[in-house]
Write a structure and sequence with these properties.
Layout (H helix, E strand, L loop, with lengths): L12 H15 L21 E3 L1 H8 L5 H17 L6 E4 L2 E5 H7 L4
Antiparallel strand pairs: 1-3, 2-3
Helix pairs in contact: 1-3, 2-3
């Protein structure tokens, strides 16, 4: 009997993250992964930290289905974590959080 491996272990974490991100973009038919309308250039409101995937999704993708947007948030977090980029995502006691000011600065929107 012969077995064939389909999951190669020679890929680096960055290659896998880029491949996952490209697949997510293809799945969304090239939709932008940034907010459709940039937030105002004023300083962020007093609550800079968004707590939970649903709150982050409603901030970044207000016009999408909440469940679909929430799943996109976790894919984005995974992408940036594997690439070791500080896009503003972090975890507090297992819950995903986003710093709005870091997110805007990372994408050059401030």
């Amino acid at each position: 009997m012969m077995s064939i491996r389909t999951n190669s272990s020679h890929r680096s974490a960055a290659d896998t993250a880029d491949a996952c991100f490209a697949a997510m973009q293809r799945h969304n038919n090239g939709k932008a992964t940034l907010p459709t309308s940039p937030p105002p250039k004023a300083p962020p409101p007093p609550g800079d930290i968004l707590y939970g995937g649903r709150a982050i999704a409603s901030y970044l993708f207000p016009d999408e289905d909440p469940n679909k947007a929430r799943r996109r948030i976790f894919h984005l977090w995974s992408h940036y974590q594997k690439r070791k980029e500080d896009a503003g995502f972090f975890k507090i006691k297992g819950a995903l959080c986003l710093s709005k000011s870091k997110w805007l600065a990372f994408h050059g929107l401030v």
